[in-house]
Amino acid sequence: MTAALDLMWDEGYSAVTIDEICDRADVKKGSFYYFFKSKAELAIAALEKLWIDDWKPRLDREFSPSVEPLNRLTNYLDALYTRQAEHFKKYGKVLGCPIGSVGSEVSTQEHDVNAKVREIGTRKQRYFESAIRDAIAEGAIEPGDARQKAQTLLFLIQGALSEARIMNNAELLRNLPATALQMLRAKPAPAATAAR
């Protein structure tokens, strides 16, 4: 699953063959078909593994209720830039979002894979929605529909990641936290009261 995800993220879902996946994973093709009926079935399992092993634990930490709501969002976006810059240093290219990359490629072809991509996107959006709802409740973001704001934020992130991948420039993500706060109409933090 790791080999499949790495290859699909790097080369694209359509470009990757089962033979390449087996070579990368150092398994026989017969073993592949013992566990999976198709590349699509493997992709679904690999995306779910990514969610369980990596994304959910990281999002649980970054979006902990013990963290201030706006900090949950900005810390996530700062870390997103850092990860993409590290990928660029390691691979010589910006890889963008594995879910977004696979999802945009298979949206009209592999309906089961696309359904898994949408499901994971919805799970991720709930973290944004919770932070936004908490920020609205404490007056840090102007009132509004938290779900709609979270969806718009997800669109902004996916668009920025896609553009960074197209331009092969992680620096395009550096100002994402400030852009997101501006889009959400976050209120500036109150100035510290001067000591008397």
| Class based on secondary structure composition and strand pairing | mainly alpha
The CATH homologous superfamily of the domain at 51-183 is called: Tetracycline Repressor, domain 2
Order of helices and strands: HHHHHHHHH
Number of DSSP-assigned strands: 0
How would you sum up this structure, described in words?
There is one protein chain. The chain is mostly helical and 196 residues long. It contains nine helices and no strands. The protein has helices spanning 2-11, 18-25, 29-35, 39-62, 69-91, 98-106, 111-137, 146-167, 176-183. The radius of gyration is 19 Å and the shape is elongated. The protein starts with a helix and ends in a 13-residue tail after the last helix.
